[in-house]
Every structure is written in C-alpha cells, then in structure tokens.
Amino acid sequence: MKDLRLRLLTASLAIPSVLAIFWLADRFDQDWLVALLLSGVGVGAGWEYVGLVARLGVTLPKEAFLFAIPAFLFLLLPKEGEFAFILAFAFAYFLVIYSFSRRGTQEGFLASVAGIFGLLYIPAMLGFVLLFHRRGGFWHVLHFLLIVWGYDSGAYFVGSLLGRHRLLPRVSLAKTWEGVAGGLLLAGAAGLFLPRFLADLGQFWPAALILGFGVGAFAQLGDLFESLVKRAAGVKDTGRFFPGHGGILDRIDGILASAPIYYFFAHYILGLF
Questions:
Q1: What is the pLDDT of residue 2?
Q2: pTM assigned to the model
Q3: d(Cα 9, Cα 13) in Å, to the nearest integer?
C-alpha cells in the first residue's frame, strides 16, 4: 500500500508537468521545448542504459554516446531532419571503430552491437514522439500517452488483483496473462479518446481499438525486453529517479517500443497527420 501511494504521488507530479510542456510547445509553436524535454529524458535513460550494459561487461564511450542523443533529437526539428539519421549512421561507424580499436574482436563486437542498438532504442524511438507532435500536435501525444498509461495501469491493477498465470516466468515473475488482458482492454478503450475519433465513433471505433491494442501490445513487449536486460544484469530497477517507479528507463520502456507503432499506424494507415 505504501508503494502504491508513492507511485501515485510521483505520477501526479510528473504527468501534469510533462503534458504541460507538450501543450505549451503546441500552443506557442515551440517544438524546441519538446526536443529539450525528450533530450533530458533520453540522456537520463542513456545514462541508465550505459550502466546496465556495463554490468554485462560492455563499456561504451559514455560522453560521446550521451551527446549523440540530444544532437539527434534537435536535428529532427527542421524539415531537413534527415541530418539526424546521417548523424546516427556516422556515430554508429564511430562506435564500431572505437570498440574494435580498444578491445579484442569479441568484446569489440559486443560493444558495437550494444552501442548501435542503444542509438536506435533510445533517441530514435523518442524521435517518433517528436515527429507526431510536430505533425499532429498535442492531442496525438496525449492520445498516445493515454494508451500507454492505460495499458500500464490496467496490467498493474488487474495483474495485482487477479493475476494467477505467469506470462514469461523466465523473464519476469510479476507479469501475468490476466494483467496483459486488463492492460489491452484499457489500452483499447483509451484508443477511442482522440477528438477526431470521438467526433465520429461510428466510423473510427474499429481503427481506434486496433490502434489501442497494437500500441498496448508493443508497450508490453518493451516492458518484457527491459525486464530481460535487467534480469541479465542482476538489477531490479534501472535507477531511482522516480520514487516508487524506479529509473527513467523503467518508465519509458513501453513508450520506446510503441512510439513507432503509433506513428506508422496513425500516419500511414489512418492518415491522421
């Protein structure tokens, strides 16, 4: 009960602050605020990621790795955002050369893989949030976050109350099939809460449910992936940034995995932005 109260208190402070920044950026057309927020989140998550892989015996060039995260996100701001991907490719080559020059063949390969994956896993996935904020506005960010938070809340409460059958006990002992079902139901319901959907539910409710279920499913995959890494590293949480919630990566693992799913479905299939 004490842990739940701490989680709710932390969420009640963090969520309005994050949404306020997205709203202000949309209201006053200041996307640099979103890039700044995501850069801070990305650097914090990157710091935790470097620490996690270090426990697995992989050492990354921390300063260069962390600098690349805000550089990538800010280069996405102009319309010529392709420069961000050029930077990512250039930095990936740098990681490979650095890793093999400082280590033997096997260690260099592992460090290269961990470094390149970290570049895709953290800044590139956060970049999708920046992209659909730029192209769709505040309501799409809110819609996306509602789905992810809906899944997390449904999975947590239904799993805590009714969970009996473990999902993948070798990866996480806390995840249950009942929790997954509760999370998907709430994520599907949250998928309806986009103004354009609400204006014509008769037309959009199937797409809204599919979008909610898809984002929720990938949010769970992101959670499972991080649980796998933490289990391999022998840690419970990636950090202690959020009291009752763990580290930054603990809070955004579902967002990282599901942001591209939301973007591609909303943009390419539904044409919402």
A1: 52
A2: 0.92
A3: 7
